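Quick one, probably user error.
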C-alpha cells in the first residue's frame, strides 16, 4: 500500500450521540485541558510515545508529534440526546466530575445543547425522554440526522467530522437478512424494519455524509455487512465495539500474562456494582445480554482453549453487573480468578477495582476521534482492526478471529502508525545488536 496522508483541515468536528456520563466527561475534559487546567492522562495520542528505528537511535517521540493528527484545541463538539439538558446539566447529573471542575468550564458546557435524538424505547427499555425526532419512517429519520450534520458543519465552518457513539446500550439483536446488503438495509429503513435500531440509523447517516463512525457501546450497529458496504463505498473507516474500560481492561491485561506463563485457569468470576444511568439501562435483561456477549468473548480468544485444552478447557467464566444507585459512576468490580500451576496446584487471585468508568472512557473517545480522522485522511476504509486496543469486542473480518491481548493490540496500533509514516516495523528480534550477520 502506498499511503499518502492528507493534511488535517483547520478544525475537526466531533458529533456524539449520547451526552451522558462519558460524553460530558469527555467534553469537560477537553475544555479543562484546552484552558491548561488539567492533563489528558490516559490518552495514548497525547501522552503515549512510540519508538522508531533501532534502540541505539534514541528516537522515541510522542505519538502526537509523530503522526499528523489534530490538536485538542481544533475540536468542535456537538451531539444528540433524548434529554434537553445542556452538557452542563448532564455533567452535573452524571456526578463523575467534581462541581469545582464543572464550574470552571460551565460556559462551554452550557453552550452544548443536544439536538433531538433518534430514539425508540423499544430498544432501550429503561429510558425515555422528550428530545426525540418524529418521522413516519426510519429512512426519514436518517435524513433528519443528515440535516443536523449539514447544519453543524455549516454553522461551525467544518469540512471534517467524526462521530463516536456514546449513547446507551440497546437490546440484543442478531444479524438478519435485512442487515446483509445496503439495498436490503435501505429498503428495511423505509419499511420500519424492527431489526434496524437507532444506533444503526446514526451510523448510516454519518457514513452517507462522509463521516467515520466509532461505536462505544456493545450494540450491533456497524458490525453488519450493509454498514461495512456503505463504509467501503464511501472510503470511510468504521470501528467498534464497546469501549474497553474497567473490568474488561483488567482482564485483557492479566489474562495474557497468565497465558504467557502457561498457567491454567479454571474459573473467572467477575461481578460489579454501579449506580449510573448506564447501570440502570443494563439492569434490563435485554440490554445486559448485549453487554454480556461483548464481555464474554474476551477470555476465549486470549486463552485459545482449543490450543491449550489442559489449561483452559474447564474454564468457567461468569460476568455479572448489578445496578446499585448509591455508587453512581464509582463502580466497584470484583474478580475472583482460580488458577493452577506446577503439578496442578491451585491458587487464587482477587481483584477489587474501585473504578471510575467514565474517567477511563473519556481518553478513549479522544484517541478514537483523532485516529479515525487520521485513518480517513490516510485512505484506510472499512474495519480499523488496528484500533482493537480501545474495544472490548474489537471488529474483525468474519474469516479472522479478534485480537484481545492488550499488548498485541498496542503493538498492532503502533506498527500501523509506523507503516503509515513509512518507518520500519518493530519486530523485537534484537539479534542484530549481537551478531553482525543478522
Ligand atoms: N462508562 C464506560 O466506561 C463504558 C465502557 C464501555 C461502554 N460503555 C457504553 O457507553 C455508553 C455510554 O455510557 P455512559 O456511562 O455515558 O451512559 P449514560 O447513560 O450516562 O449516557 C448515555 C446517554 O445516551 C442517551 N441516549 C440514549 N439513547 C440515545 C439515542 N438513541 N440518541 C441519543 N442519545 C441517546 C441517554 O439519554 C444518556 O444521556 C453505554 O452504551 C455504555 O454501555 C460505557
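Nope, works fine. Designed sequence:
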Amino acid at each position: 500500500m502506498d499511503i499518502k496522508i492528507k493534511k488535517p483541515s483547520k478544525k475537526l468536528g466531533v458529533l456524539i450521540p449520547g451526552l451522558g456520563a462519558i460524553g460530558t466527561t469527555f467534553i469537560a475534559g477537553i475544555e479543562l485541558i484546552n484552558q491548561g487546567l488539567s492533563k489528558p492522562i490516559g490518552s495514548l495520542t497525547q501522552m503515549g510515545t512510540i519508538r522508531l528505528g533501532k534502540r541505539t537511535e534514541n528516537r522515541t517521540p510522542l505519538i502526537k508529534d509523530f503522526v499528523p493528527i489534530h490538536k485538542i484545541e481544533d475540536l468542535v463538539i456537538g451531539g444528540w440526546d433524548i434529554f434537553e439538558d445542556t452538557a452542563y446539566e448532564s455533567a452535573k447529573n452524571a456526578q463523575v466530575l467534581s462541581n469545582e471542575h464543572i464550574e470552571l468550564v460551565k460556559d462551554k458546557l452550557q453552550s452544548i445543547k443536544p439536538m433531538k435524538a433518534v430514539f425508540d424505547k423499544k430498544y432501550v427499555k429503561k429510558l425515555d425522554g422528550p428530545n426525540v425526532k418524529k418521522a413516519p419512517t426510519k429512512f426519514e429519520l436518517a435524513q433528519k440526522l443528515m440535516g443536523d450534520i449539514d447544519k453543524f458543519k455549516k454553522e461551525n465552518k467544518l469540512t471534517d467530522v467524526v462521530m463516536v457513539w456514546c449513547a446507551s446500550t440497546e437490546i440484543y439483536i442478531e444479524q438478519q437478512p435485512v442487515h446483509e446488503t445496503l439495498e436490503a438495509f435501505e429498503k428495511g429503513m423505509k419499511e420500519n424494519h424492527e431489526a434496524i435500531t437507532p444506533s444503526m440509523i446514526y451510523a448510516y447517516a454519518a457514513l452517507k455524509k462522509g463521516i467515520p463512525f466509532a461505536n462505544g457501546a456493545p450494540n450491533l450497529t456497524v458490525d453488519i455487512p450493509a454498514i461495512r458496504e456503505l463504509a467501503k463505498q464511501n472510503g470511510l473507516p468504521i470501528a467498534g465495539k464497546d469501549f474497553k474500560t474497567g473490568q474488561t481492561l483488567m482482564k485483557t491485561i492479566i489474562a495474557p500474562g497468565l497465558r504467557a506463563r502457561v498457567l491454567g485457569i479454571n474459573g473467572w468470576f467477575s461481578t460489579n456494582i454501579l449506580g449510573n444511568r448506564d447501570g440502570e439501562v443494563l439492569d434490563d435483561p435485554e440490554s445486559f445480554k448485549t453487554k454480556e456477549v461483548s464481555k464474554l468473548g474476551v477470555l476465549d480468544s486470549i486463552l485459545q482453549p482449543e490450543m491449550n485444552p489442559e489449561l483452559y478447557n474447564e474454564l468457567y467464566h461468569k460476568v455479572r453487573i448489578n445496578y446499585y444507585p448509591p455508587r453512581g459512576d464509582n463502580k466497584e468490580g470484583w474478580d475472583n480468578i482460580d488458577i493452577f500451576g506446577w503439578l496442578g496446584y491451585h491458587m487464587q487471585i482477587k481483584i477489587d477495582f474501585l473504578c471510575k468508568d467514565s474517567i477511563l472512557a473519556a481518553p478513549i473517545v479522544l484517541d478514537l476521534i483523532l485516529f479515525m480522522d487520521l485513518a480517513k485522511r490516510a485512505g484506510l476504509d472499512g474495519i480499523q482492526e488496528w484500533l482493537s486496543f480501545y474495544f472490548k469486542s474489537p471488529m474483525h473480518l468474519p474469516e479472522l478471529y479478534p485480537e484481545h491481548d492488550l499488548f498485541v493490540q498496542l503493538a498492532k496500533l503502533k506498527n500501523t502508525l509506523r507503516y503509515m509514516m513509512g518507518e520500519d516495523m518493530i519486530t523485537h528480534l534484537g539479534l542484530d545488536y549481537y551478531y553482525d550477520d543478522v
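The chain has two domains: 12-243+359-420, 247-355.
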